[in-house]
Amino acid sequence: MTALGSQPVELLASCWTTAGDAGPNRGDERSPFSLPSRIEAAADAGYRGFGIVHADLAAAEATSGFDAIAAMLATHAMVHLELEMLNDWFATGSRRHASDLVRVDLLRAAERLRPRQIKVGSEIDGHAWPWGQLVESFAELCRQAADAGTRIALEPMPFGQVKDLTLGRRLVDDAGQANGGLMLDLWHMARGGVDFAEIRELPARYIFAVELDDADEQVRGATLSEDTLNFRRLCGEGDQDVSGFIAAIRATGYAGPWGVEILSEDFRHLALREQARRSFQTTMGAFAAR
C-alpha cells in the first residue's frame, strides 16, 4: 500500500494487465503466463490486488484447485481479488446457456476465494433487450452472488446497451439489490462522453470498482470496440485526464482499490515483469500528479 497525500492507494492488476498475449474475444482467452508467475510479478511490482478471468480460473482450478489459488494470493499479500467476465446473463437461448456455465464456475469460485466482486457487462452486439428483463436478470444474479458471499459490478460501456452512468444507475436502482453496483473504467467514461462532474456527484454506494488506463484523443481503429481492445494506453501516455478522473472518483468518497486495465497490442507483447512494472509505475505516477 502506498500513501499519497492523506489517502492510501492500493492498485489491483486487472486480469488482462498481466496476461501477456491474451485478450477478450480472441477465442481461447487463457494467458500464456502461469497464474503463479503473474501473481508474483504483480506483487513484486507493488500491486495488492489481482484479477482473474474465467478461462484462467478454470485452468487453474483444474490443475491446482481453489485452495492453491488462495494460497498463492495470500503468499504474495494480494488482499483484493476480482473475478470476471460474465456476459449474456440477461440473454436467452444458446447465449444464456453458455453464460450460465460461466456463472456457475464464477459463483462456485466466489464461495471459496471471496473476491471483492464479479465483473459483468451488458449487451454489446446491438440487440435491445427489454428493460424489465435486464432488471430481473440483474437482480437474480445479484441474489445468487450474495449467496456466494460476493458482489456484482456492472461495467457501463459506450457501445453497450447499458452505455453510461445514467443507465447504469437506473439498472442498479431498479434491481434493488445492495450487492449490485457499478465498475467505472476511465476508457469507457471518456469515450462515452461522461462528464467527470457527473462522476463527482455520484453517491459512493454505486461505485464498487474503478479501472484506470488512458487513450489517445481520437478513436483508433474502425470501431470503439477495436479501440478499447487494442489501443489503450498506459496512464499518462495518452491524452485523457487521468488525474481528473481520479479526483472525481475520490470526491465520491470511494475508498477501495484502483484497478489497472491495459488492453493494447503493443502492451501484450511485453515481458510479464515489464507489463507489471510499467503498468504499476505509470498508474502511481497519475496519483503523484494530483
List descriptors.
290 residues, alpha/beta, TIM Barrel, eight-stranded parallel barrel, two-stranded antiparallel ribbon, 10 strands, globular
Description:
The protein has a domain at about 80-230 and about 255-270: TIM Barrel, CATH 3.20.20.150. By secondary structure, the chain is α/β, with parallel strands linked by helices. Strands 3-4-5-6-7-8-9-10 form an 8-stranded parallel beta barrel, surrounded by 7 helices. It has 12 helices and 10 strands. The protein has helices at about 35-45, 55-65, 65-75, 95-115, 130-145, 165-175, 185-190, 195-200, 225-230, 240-250, 265-270, 270-290, and strands at about 1-5, 5-10, 10-15, 50-55, 80-85, 115-120, 150-155, 180-185, 205-210, 260. About 45% of the residues lie in helices and about 15% in strands.
CATH architecture of the domain at 79-230 and 254-270: Alpha-Beta Barrel
Whole-number mean pLDDT: 96
Order of H and E elements: EEEHEHHEHEHEHEHHEHHEHH
Secondary structure: number of strands: 10
Percentage beta strand: 5-15%
Structural class: alpha/beta
- Broad CATH class of the domain at 79-230 and 254-270: Alpha Beta
**Helical content (DSSP H or I, runs of 4+):** 40-55%
As residue ranges, the low-confidence spans are: none
Shape: globular
Largest sheet: 8 strands, parallel, barrel
Radius of gyration over C-alpha positions, nearest whole angstrom: 18 Å
* Major beta sheet, strand line-up: 3-4-5-6-7-8-9-10
CATH topology of the domain at 79-230 and 254-270: TIM Barrel
- Summed up, the helix count is 12
